[in-house]
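Predict the holo structure. Ligand: KG4.
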Amino acid sequence: SQKIYILGIESSCDDTAAAVICNGEILSNVVATQQIHIKYGGVVPELASRAHQQHIVPVVHQALEQAGITKEDLHGIAFTKGPGLMGSLLVGVSFAKSLAMGLNIPLLDVNHMQGHILAHFIEEDGYTLPTFPFLAMTISGGHTQIVKVNDYFDMDVIGQTLDDAVGEAFDKSGKLLGLKYPAGPEIDKLAKQGNPKAFPFSKPKVGGLDFSFSGLKTAILYFIQKKVKENPNFIEENLADICASIQYTIISILMAKLKKAVKETGITQVAIGGGVSANSGIRDALKQAEHTLGWTTYIPKFEYTTDNAGMIAITGYHKYLKQDFADITVVAKARLAI
Ligand code: KG4
Ligand code: ZN
């Protein structure tokens, strides 16, 4: 059968990424993570945009080279249309447009959050692809949603955060503890040595399948302020226990809503996606649910959890198969629903 090569480009936040896939298989997946934001403790949009401009040409070049193809072999260019930071998105959109125009091949616009979900359709050895319908919980620095995935491009958001995203809950609590940005992976690492029941934090009371994380952040802030007043070395002396407790609380919140979603929909195929799906605690909890609850779970490989272009390329590939091409006048959208 014919080989379809799709280049994916991702530039929605602070990672400049490019990937090539061929008929659902990944040939290259290159990510340049911007280090510049670490010293500011968060993403600075103007700096992100400038860094994307510096990285995009070498990153695309590297992706093609690693895939062992040239740009003339490509059948389509997929790019992230949104949601994300406007200045960052614009770099990817304009680059993708000019490349597609120059090569005279289709342009494929991708919703970043659909990308996090459809990353599960990247074909790998020993990995079973999900079948429709399935539930997907997208957990990242900007989003927290439970999505009912009826088909590749037919998704219903059945629950979402009313305030902060779960990644923000990790990052902001970590900042209070003096951890470097992004704090999610740091908390994950430290939590492994701590007692998850050391400091109980109360969980938010939010109805239905929605989430709220701003109350948790405030609770952690007050807790730490109080403890540090009593003992100035409280954080250093209890860092692993604090991290384990925060992570345990967040995972309990996520799992409770997932269980509710499974119960309400009757769907026991459950996938996770987005940066926070790299978290070892949520991965373990999901694996455990296979045994205790009889779910079939889909946990992405690490390289497809945080922002990457493999997920954009695979989504573009499925759009290509449907001949769902973007017009050259397509524009970036900072806000874009699934
Ligand atoms: O999907 P992503 O790369 O970017 C967005 O679209 O937001 O997600 C980034 C988020 C950050 O908040 C980061 O702290 C979090 O994912 N994250 C983690 C872990 N690895 C990344 N959170 C908890 N545990 C991890 N191991
Ligand atoms: Zn993302």
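The domain at 134-300 is CATH 3.30.420.40 (Nucleotidyltransferase; domain 5). The CA atoms of residues 158 and 256 lie 14 Å apart.
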